[in-house]
Specification:
The structure is a homodimer.
Chain A lengths: L1 E6 L7 H15 L3 E6 H4 L21 H11 L4 H12 L2 E7 L7 H10 L21 E7 L16 H4 L1 H9 L4 E2 L3 E3 L7 H16 L18
Parallel strand pairs in A: 1-2, 1-3, 3-4, 4-5, 4-6
Amino acid sequence: MKILIVYAHPEPKSFNGAMKDLASQVLQEAGHSVQISDLYSLDFDAVGGVNDFMEIADTKFFNYLNEQVRATNDGGFVPELKTEMDKVVWADFVLFQFPLWWFSFPAIMKGWIDRMFAMGFSYEIRRNFESGIFREKRAMLALTTGSPSMLFRSDGKLGSIEDILHHIHWGMLRYVGMDVLPPFVAYGAARATAEQRAAYLEAYKERLRTVETTSAMSLLALPPSAQ
Amino acid sequence: MKILIVYAHPEPKSFNGAMKDLASQVLQEAGHSVQISDLYSLDFDAVGGVNDFMEIADTKFFNYLNEQVRATNDGGFVPELKTEMDKVVWADFVLFQFPLWWFSFPAIMKGWIDRMFAMGFSYEIRRNFESGIFREKRAMLALTTGSPSMLFRSDGKLGSIEDILHHIHWGMLRYVGMDVLPPFVAYGAARATAEQRAAYLEAYKERLRTVETTSAMSLLALPPSAQ
């Protein structure tokens, strides 16, 4: 497979960094091709808007969707976005590596979605979900949490991780047609012992080795707990 | 009340801009004090990390939470964040005005949360939810969607807006202790007719006039559809 790892963490020596490095190594050893988008190192601009485009067609009223469709057709995205879009087109599989911040992606990764998943490029009206433009691609989230796993139960203090990630799984990845594999979650990574971290990396290695044969989740509009 | 409007849209003449202007006007006419954080006009940096701080205590390993706690104690946040933090401390009520992008905040608004809701400043271990630091404050989302309302039903193509917003309502606003009012949603704003837009603004005006007496939602860890 051709695999794109989209990675967001401000500290290269973090556990997220270790997971990203492990994934790159294990996946290449398994014969896959790997590219990495290290968003913090790239100083990726998280803010979608006029700066996505070489030129603006309508300078009197900035209509983001119209400009996205136009830029898809005439190649008018800025090089920073073109580079990322080429990687997405290239990839069979997109792996997101990030710390869960406020029940969601860090803003820099949300910005990658906002800008990359441009109308025309990643979806069109009625070309979404099962008929989505990226329906031949697969995706998976690999993440760390600050809180321990016991807080992430349906009846726990925070709620289940599947419910929390639903807006990403369903509203971002499945929306553009991707098949989404179950997430890999390293709970409480910040305060984990060296042994716990080693165990997480070992378990992650196993997940990565079987990623090609892992079944996608059956996602619906309803959050998992409500199904 | 003292009201902070946090507003994110790349086009000032957008319907989001009109909703922000209306809110500012109506709330001031009702006797409230209003401040506005116009994130696109501020060119607000969405990316949380080392640039949040005047100095870094541990330059060998950037631990975001540790630096946040330290900066809360010694006033070490950069002026851009201090200014926003002062507004949050000042406000009784925080109103978020934004277009729903990919089932969530635009990245610039998620970045405002990532950077503003610093550990120490907005929460501490065991100081969250009902014992949260901001438990005397209230918040509300006012948003537009691209898709029409018929797609936002529990059994619809996208799912209910309450489920979609759950990660914000519960995981961001309620987490820091805020009482959260029901959202105001202008569905399909981009393709609405002038009459529909006028009707939305009229309905929004009514919501704003009664905002002081509106009851907060009863939020739980479970998404609304699963309760």
